[in-house]
């Protein structure tokens, strides 16, 4: 069995999944986001739309704002965002304006994800990696909506 590096995409996505689980437990759609700079987590959050009664309180938006505050910069070109579900157009637009260095996505969002609508919304310099621990994220999302229906 190989051990994961503490700086691997899988390691940081596990941290984003922990945030997603917090959202799940709070009755929010289970999406978690982690911002990493120089192999250090500088911001993390999860969906808080219901709790804050704010349609823009997506995990990515909250984590990005916290990261910008942490760095005292509007740009995150040296940072990587790990998110458990593909960002929507709103979040992708925000990531464009931050000039995010790298975006790592677990599960695709075939209904509302930005890549289904306009993949070009991502900043041209942003590297995108998809599918990191996708199954873990998909199971959590399916369980959440199954629980809502019961």
Structure description:
This protein is an alpha/beta fold. Helix content is 43%, strand content 20%. The protein has 6 helices and 5 strands, in the order αββααβαβαβα. The chain has helices at 9-25, 49-52, 59-71, 89-98, 114-118, 134-149; strands spanning 32-37, 40-46, 79-85, 102-107, 127-130. The protein has a 5-stranded mixed beta sheet with strand order 2-1-3-4-5. Strand 4, helix 5 (114-118) and strand 5 form a beta-alpha-beta unit. The longest helix has 17 residues, at 9-25. The model has no long low-confidence stretch (mean pLDDT 92).
Topology:
Blueprint: H1 9-25, E1 32-37, E2 40-46, H2 49-52, H3 59-71, E3 79-85, H4 89-98, E4 102-107, H5 114-118, E5 127-130, H6 134-149
Parallel strand pairs: 3-4, 4-5
Antiparallel strand pairs: 1-2, 1-3
Helix pairs in contact: 1-6
